[in-house]
What does this fold into?
Amino acid sequence: NLSDRLSRLVKTMRGQARITETNVADMMREVRMALLEADVALPVVRDFIARVKEKALGQEVVGSLNPGQVLVSIVHKELARTMGEGQQELHFPANPPMVILMAGLQGAGKTTTTAKLTRWLIEKKKKKVLTVSTDVYRPAAMDQLRTVTAQAGGECFPARPDQKPVDIALAALDQCRRQYFDVLIVDTAGRLAIDEALMAEIRDLHAAVRPTETLFVVDAMQGQDAMNTARAFKDVLPLTGIVLTKLDGDSRGGAALSVQQVTQTPIKFAGVSEKIDGLEAFDPDRHAGRVLGMGDIVSLVESVQQNVDVAAAQKLAAKVKSGESFDLNDFLSQLGQMKNMGGLSSLMDKLPAQLASKAGNLDMDKAERDVRRMEAVILSMTPLERTKPDLIKASRKRRIAAGAGVHVQEVNKLLKQFEQMRDMMKKMKGGGMMKMLKRMGG
Ligand code: GDP
Ligand code: MG
It folds into this structure.
């Protein structure tokens, strides 16, 4: 499983301090695989990898992150940024009616999306919507649009298959104006593959109705082919948006990246079910997670961002600087942060070399166990005891020890360590992690 491989790779990079040619190359190999498995077209994959590589090499690893986490985060961000490029809602013209032209291959989901959009425009935008089918080749297509438009609560222009597509569209536009509709959606015929006649027809339709929005509808399950289809349509039509359908299927949706890159057109909507309400605004962030492996990557990146509670650290620093008393809550939060940063052993990796060698003879496993025990002790204190440790006398110590499942000596030891820490905080005004490590080892 790919996201497992990515997670494992992130873990192996834990001991490394910097982003290097080597760990970037390792990461890019996995990302390339992820994108290809998600059916992103090969040239698009190459392009993307090259761009991310360049960004990654200039990046510093700061705070508690390791290079793997930083790299995953860069990949995810860049993928979301690329797929979300130029993103915008539908453009509503100052003077109605707004005309939307639907383009795409047969089976892509044009008719279904026309109905979904109708519903969306009526419910979300309070528009009066007319639809029209120009598919004169399949009478069933006209019936289909009539049925689904009614389900959506819109009106459907009564087209006849013996008319020409352009004439049908113009007649519908005329009715739209006379009856004060806000929006006309023109559903078109598709072919199973790109052909000249189809392209000529949609170009003529575009010239006749001069749409505000020309939406290219593409099936996310089309995979690699999506890029070529998109290019063919882009060559004849000034597309203004893409609708990616059938994202409820099990495809990883890599088509989103290919199609966006080839057309340089924003993805405006995602089709997420066959039903009339199955249309959503495209969410590049969430989709990037899916393309890289079903969202696991997103949670990996999120856990990175939550690793260090920045707010808590700043609060502590401010407290120390202002000379306020350092209490057991602060001590607890410091312990928690050491744990969040991937354990004490990983903290050691981040220390400058000469400090690390001094601390090198510490037993890290023991230190980690100690930290957990210290936390348990503080957690069995009352809030008052934590802010006023001087209150903690013999009987309270017995109660706390029993609560934490330790001997009373442990409570004494913790209080002593806390006092040392407090003295040190006063002297050092912040920081002090290193000395604390030494104390705990000794
Ligand atoms: P058209 O030929 O481009 O007009 O395509 P249709 O709108 O007739 O859709 C073709 C098939 O795809 C139909 O069976 C639709 O129900 C189905 N379909 C369209 N969009 C979606 C979607 O977002 N999710 C799912 N599951 N099916 C869809
Ligand atoms: Mg259709």
In short: The CA atoms of residues 10 and 68 lie 4 Å apart. Residues 301-308, 346-358, 430-442 have pLDDT under 50 and may be disordered. The domain at 2-84+299-306 is CATH 1.20.120.140 (Four Helix Bundle (Hemerythrin (Met), subunit A)). The two ends are 44 Å apart (CA to CA).
